[in-house]
Design brief:
A hairpin with a 4-residue loop joins strand 10 and strand 11. The N and C termini lie far apart (about 50 Å). Helices cover about 5% and strands about 30% of the residues.
């Protein structure tokens, strides 16, 4: 039987629902808005598979909870992966072509580490831009996060980027 815990459902409704990845993800809940997060329950080497994106559904509306999956589509994750927050020094990547979450290539993932990804790696334009507070060391924090469209290309090239972001960079105008 899947673990059932009290949680705020990804769609914003409170209640009980089964943990989607009970052996991989712990959701740390916060009473503050946008402060809940996902933590890894496992240690994995750099580049390793973490989870497949399996419970997603297409959405016609770009939202703060959606993930851009191609040039013109977004999905709702509908599971605990929605609690993976942004960081300018991410621990995982969301590969929307393979519908897979992987550990970043430049370092391993440690048990107890927050599960974070670089939002502009999937998002051309954010539905809800924000001022980053990731706490990245040595001035690595990019500050205002509003999507890849609004970032300098040399800053973006420091990260793994999804194919649709690469295509938009080739076709779009970036600073």
């Amino acid at each position: 039987m899947a673990e059932t815990t009290p949680k705020e459902a990804p769609n914003g409704f409170s209640g009980y629902y089964p943990s989607s990845h009970p052996n991989l993800i712990q959701v740390d809940r916060s009473p503050k808005a946008f402060a809940s997060g996902a933590v890894s329950l496992v240690s994995l080497p750099a580049g390793a598979h973490f989870a497949y994106i399996e419970n997603a559904s297409p959405t016609a509306v770009r939202r703060y909870t959606s993930v851009q999956s191609s040039i013109d589509t977004h999905i709702e994750l509908n599971d605990d992966l929605v609690y993976c927050n942004h960081s300018c020094v991410p621990s995982v990547v969301f590969d929307m072509t393979k519908l897979e979450v992987r550990v970043v290539n430049n370092r391993p993932l440690k048990k107890g580490e927050p599960l974070t990804f670089f939002y502009p790696s999937t998002e051309w334009e954010m539905a809800q831009p924000f001022d980053c507070s990731c706490g990245a060391p040595d001035n690595q924090c990019k500050g205002r996060i509003s999507g890849a469209k609004n970032m300098r290309e040399d800053d973006l090239r420091q990260y793994w980027l999804n194919e649709h972001i690469e295509k938009l960079l080739r076709n779009g105008t970036v600073p």
